[in-house]
Model the fold of this input.
Amino acid sequence: MLSGTKMSDIELSVIIPTYNEEANVFLLYKQITEVMTSMKKPYEIIFIDDGSRDRTLPNLKSIKEKDSHVKIIVFRSNFGQTAALDAGFKNAKGKVLFAMDADLQNDPKDIPRLLKKLNEGYDCVSGWRFDRKDSFSKKIVSVFANILRKYLTKDNIHDSGCTLKAYRKECFNDLTLFGEMHRYIPALLKWRGFKIGELKVHHHARKFGKTKYGMLRVFRGFLDLLVVKFWMQYSVRPIHFFGGMGLLMSAVGVIIGLYLTFVKYIMHIGIWGRPLLILAVLLIILGAQLLIFGLLADIMMKIYYRDVGNYSIREIL
Done:
């Protein structure tokens, strides 16, 4: 900590989730320290040990013993990158927060550039790994994932999966992250009215350790994308989603029922045992259930927003 600097005076916080990165943390710490010292602003470095099973935590503790700028948050088990970032954001004291990976693929030298871009009037600046140094399979999956995300969320970010980002502290007031939702923070912030920007950043090939990326994370990320899409569009009015589907299903069931009534009483043709009859009854029942589910969801969301509010105030003049 800079001489005479109080925790309340910290301006910049660097947040790094770590999981089995014993070979990287010393070098990463050195790189970050060089950059932060050159910026001449009070800062802190927060490492979140996400249940590492190697010597990551002992290495971090040895760093902490020599530098009061360093804070370590230790998880009891491996809870994932999103949980680690959420813990870092909630425990950070800085007015501006930087998030980055611990694998040395993000470049700390981009931090001053992100801050400069942030000061142009943005609340969040997302890094864009324009020249990405990853395997072809990893890059092609990310291309399709980014296309789908941009289509559903309309966040206009090229590379939301890049962890290297800069945020203003107020971005995370009343925002809690779950699952694999760290990829969609810009979309969530845009939905809440914050101004989102993007900056091309450097990207390096991994030299030490193993990637934690896998197909299971892709599927989890897709499911979380659906949650984000629903939350952005229907969280304050779930009755419109479930009730709309319920009314549509019930209407189709009623139309089929009217047709079968015409067949039975006008055309005098038996309808018992017809698949259409079973379908009509099923659609009406499912439609009624969805409508009731929508009403219950609407009540629960009103209780939720009663405590956290469904709007975000920038300032009161």
About this structure: Residues 22 and 128 are 26 Å apart (CA to CA). The chain has nine helices and seven strands. The longest helix spans residues 275-308. The chain has two domains: 7-234, 238-308.
